[in-house]
């Protein structure tokens, strides 16, 4: 099983931009995640095909389980 943190932002065109971080600290500190997302928005750290990131939408943990099948 692998866990990742997804930070979801909105760009100028109204689309969603998702930044994914592998192996995050769990549980996360919501204030720290929010502050990091604010810094990304304020610093114009990333630009998407829909323009600059203009706001934060949400953050979430995603678990992925892979089960091999013997063939």
TrEMBL record:
<dbReference type="InterPro" id="IPR021321">
    <property type="entry name" value="DUF2922"/>
</dbReference>
<protein>
    <recommendedName>
        <fullName>DUF2922 domain-containing protein</fullName>
    </recommendedName>
</protein>
<dbReference type="Pfam" id="PF11148">
    <property type="entry name" value="DUF2922"/>
</dbReference>
């Amino acid at each position: 099983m692998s866990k990742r943190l997804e930070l979801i932002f909105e760009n100028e065109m109204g689309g969603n931009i998702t930044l994914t971080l592998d192996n995050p600290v769990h549980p996360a500190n919501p204030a720290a995640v929010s502050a990091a997302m604010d810094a990304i928005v304020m610093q114009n750290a990333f630009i998407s095909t829909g323009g600059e990131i203009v706001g934060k939408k949400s953050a979430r943990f995603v678990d992925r389980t892979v089960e091999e099948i013997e063939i």
